[in-house]
Amino acid sequence: MLKAGSNLLWTVFGQEEVTSQLAVGIDKGLTHHAYLFTGPSRTGKKLTAYNLARAINCESSQAPCGECVSCERITGGKHADVQLIDLVTRQDETGARTAIVVEEIEAIQRAAILPPFEGRSRVFIIDGAEFLTAGAANRLLKTLEEPPPGVVFVLLAASFEQVLPTVASRCRHFEFKLSSNDSLAAYLVQVAGAGIEEACLLARLSRGRTGWAIEALKDGQFREDYFKRRDNMLALFVAGYEERFSWAGSLAMRFGKNRPDVHDELLELRIIARDLLLAGFGQEDYITNQDKLESINRISSLYKPGELVDFIKAIQAAGEQLSSNVNPRLVLENAVLSLKAPATGIMVK
Ligand SMILES: [Zn+2]
């Protein structure tokens, strides 16, 4: 019999407390009918949800083994009893998906009453429980109150507060944490094979999100895209209004396709503005984008601290307005308009 928590496949760096508790539960044959995983993006919530689905349906005594037919079909996204519901996978005709709607929950309910097709339990992973409409959340609540036997729901959300309390109270809650810079950098060097300088930079840029750091280390395209997006954001601080509007327009387009992604990008922009503010105060050690110190110092000298503080507040407000039903383009244009026009002729390197 598997010693609780000893299976390496459960391991998600930085979330050992969560994964060992889940492993103990599975080891004792105790599964809850609903779990709620909350925490920042890319901290391992979805990976852990899939590990849970694998562990529940695994054919080996070393669950989740990762190698049996069931584990492999779940990994490949082919298992008939494990279903992911999120904002990204199923887009409507316009691509604009901003909520998980009641029809999707009804479809789950219809599937949930059927016996498992190939595994032991049907597992429904709802990624973005904070994006359930009121109708969808209430419908889900009915199912959570009287769960069909052998069905497991795993709800994922960025924060506990954003989930309807009546829904949250029906779930076993696990909080996913951010890792410290030092522990994450050490992990990247010792386990993931990063160089020390690279590990320190990625740990800092990840802001404690292990999944982000690992993806940035392993996936060159991911890293390149991120650096390109970051350069574009840094360039906004020396760009004219036309370029700023064009940035706002393209971000508004992305908002229709991937909402969480745009919220992440606004957070990145806030961090850059904060870096510029810190540079103005000579606090280089606290700057997140350490590999951009030269540009940050140069751009920082163009702004008064109050102007950067106002911009940081404007980005934050834009993020909140995007969560209501406001035209995303207008919101984002207003945000970039709130930053004063810079002196011209300064290039970002
Ligand atoms: Zn298995």
The bound ligands are: zinc ion
Strand order of the largest sheet: 2-3-4-1-5
The number of helical segments is 15
CATH-defined fold name of the largest domain? Rossmann fold
**Text of the CATH class of the largest domain:** Alpha Beta
How many separate domains? 2
CATH architecture of the largest domain: 3-Layer(aba) Sandwich
| N- and C-termini, Cα separation | 58 Å
Strand content: 5-15%
Order of helices and strands: HEHHEHEHEHEHHHHHHHHH
Overall helicity: 40-55%
Which of globular, elongated, flat, extended, rod-shaped describes the shape? globular
Structural class: alpha/beta
The poorly predicted ranges are 1-6
Overall pLDDT level: 90
Radius of gyration, whole Å: 22 Å
* Number of beta strands: 5
The main pleated sheet reads as:
5 strands, parallel
Structure, explained:
It is a single chain. The protein has 2 domains: about 10-175, 3-Layer(aba) Sandwich (Rossmann fold), CATH 3.40.50.300; about 220-335, Zinc Finger, Delta Prime, domain 3 (Up-down Bundle), CATH 1.20.272. It is an alpha/beta fold. Residues about 1-5 have low confidence and may be disordered. Helix 12 (about 260-280) crosses helix 13. Strands 2-3-4-1-5 form a 5-stranded parallel beta sheet, sandwiched between helices. The chain has helices spanning about 15-25, 45-55, 70-75, 100-110, 135-145, 165-170, 180-190, 195-205, 210-220, 220-235, 240-255, 260-280, 295-300, 305-325, 330-335, and strands spanning about 35-40, 80-85, 120-125, 150-155, 170-175. Zinc ion (ZN) binds next to helix 3.
